[in-house]
Write a structure and sequence with these properties.
Elements lengths: L2 E9 L3 H5 L2 E13 L2 E8 L2 E7 L6 E9 L1 H11 L4 E12 L2 E8 L7 E6 L13 E4 L8 H5 L1
């Protein structure tokens, strides 16, 4: 089983834009928002994935991700996800020590919400907080993408 160890923070300012090394447009929808088995389909620029995530235990959860054809992902978004779709722009910011900040600017009904995530090699891994990092929201269900989509 693959494990995702991720911490999530609110963003204080837009300094991440100047620091970003890449910008990605994302549309993702949820086939299941059950806390024990979240299933999402995501299109990022010209690639698509189906992802299954287990329940969170702190900053850790199981994650399985599979590449799918973009055309199939579009069909799943249109026919299976209903209103459980979110769109966002992701900015990739290098965090040092091989770590990366993923800063998501949400669009549509969540316009104005900006959240930064950092994936870690271990729960107790030490990392430097970038100047745009605000309050930690790891483990707060209202900031899960699956909650935002519902």
């Amino acid at each position: 089983m693959a494990k995702e160890i991720e911490r999530k923070f609110l963003v204080l300012n837009d300094s991440y834009k100047a620091a970003a090394v890449r910008k990605i447009e994302i549309a993702q929808g949820y086939l299941s928002t059950d806390a024990d088995a979240t299933v999402r389909v995501r299109i990022s620029d010209d690639a698509a994935w189906l992802t299954v995530k287990s329940r969170n235990y702190g900053a850790v959860r199981g994650e399985w991700e599979y590449s799918v054809p973009v055309a199939d992902a579009r069909e799943m978004l249109e026919s299976c996800c209903g209103c459980r779709i979110i769109e966002k722009t992701r900015y990739i910011v290098e965090a040092g020590n091989g770590l990366i900040w993923e800063v998501d600017e949400f669009h549509g009904r969540h316009q104005g919400l900006v959240v930064a995530e950092i994936e870690l090699p271990a729960e107790d891994a030490v990392f430097a907080k970038a100047p745009f990092i605000g309050r930690e929201v790891t483990g707060l269900p209202e900031y899960y993408n699956s909650s935002l989509a519902s």
